[in-house]
Amino acid sequence: MEKGEWDNCTSPVKFILLGMGNVSSLKTLFFLLLLMIYSVTMVGNILIVVLVVADQHLHTPMYFFLGNLSSLETCYSSTILPRLLASFLTGDSSISAHGCITQLHFFCAFASSECYLLAVMSYDRYLAICQPLLYASLMTWKVSLWLTAASWLVGFLSCTIVPSFLSQFKFCGPKKIDHFFCDLTPLLELSCSDTRVVTTVSFILCFLNLVFPFLFTLASYVCIIAAILRIPTNMGRQKAFSTCSSHLTVVTVFYATLITVYMVPRTPQLRQLNKVFSFFYTILTPLVNPLIYSLRNREVREALRKALRKALAFTQSSQQFCTPA
């Protein structure tokens, strides 16, 4: 055992992230693919935030929540992808113990905040479709701000508990983490400390941060779908469903991949499959969300067209101004 790799022979200074497995021959391809995914994710989500802020027609609670969701997706991707890109570029897949726990904290915080925010967005759609006459009085800007702030705050505060436990743990197993980011289960597998307390705490937090928002979202959509089915005309049903179809698609993609990841056993035979599903909900979901909202939402498409027309007109006027007479 090399000196400096371990502190007091029990706590590793660094972990090695094994990533997606032995893909050395495809390293350049993976780097370019991930770089493209990260670039499109950042541009798409930041563009939605800019549109929500700049376009007055999007100054409603629904789009305020969407702007916050895109902000979360931007932060969510940035906890994993830059580190993964750096490892492909430099060949160094090591991460410090404190850096690993910090990554876990921010990943869990952003994921938990997203679960709560998706539940808030489903409640907003429930009020808009099931209580349309009361919507303006119930979903005020003050209520929207409080619900959004609570989603961020609860997500971050609840996810400080497990990392604080992990920072006290001793790790006596091999320092290799069989994953492409620092997730809780692979870390616990390397610990030689008693993990019963942190396992119980993480189970309770999982129910509060994942299961409870999921059940709330599910109940909201059961009520929404029941209300839509009671609308007598096809046009009325289509119009009502169009206001929540984008959000329903995002919720389905997010929870389907997230629940699959934590239901698949971490046996040696299924670990690669677990990584594939983790790749979907940590990397691909933030990529597809802005695409879903821009393709399926008429107001966002119109705001984007308006912004592109303004940018084109500004470019043309600048060229005319700079062209000598």
UniProtKB/TrEMBL annotation:
Residues crossing the lipid bilayer are 29-54, 143-166, 201-229, 241-264, 276-295
Question: Matching InterPro entries, A to Z?
Answer: GPCR_Rhodpsn, GPCR_Rhodpsn_7TM, Olfact_rcpt, Olfactory_GPCR
Offer one Pfam family short name for this entry: 7tm_4
Gene3D superfamilies, alphabetically?
A: Rhodopsin 7-helix transmembrane proteins (1.20.1070.10)
Instruction: Enumerate the spans annotated as G-protein coupled receptors family 1 profile domain.
Output: 44-293
Principal place of residence: membrane
Keywords per UniProt:
Cell membrane, G-protein coupled receptor, Membrane, Olfaction, Receptor, Sensory transduction, Transducer, Transmembrane, Transmembrane helix
The reply to whether Transmembrane figures as a keyword in the UniProt entry is yes
Q: Where in the cell is it found?
A: Cell membrane
Coiled-coil blocks? none
Cross-referenced SUPFAM superfamilies? Family A G protein-coupled receptor-like
Q: Which domain of life is it from?
A: Eukaryota
Topology term for the membrane: Multi-pass membrane protein
Q: Which family does it belong to?
A: Belongs to the G-protein coupled receptor 1 family.
- The name of this protein is Olfactory receptor
Name the encoding gene, please. LOC136993806
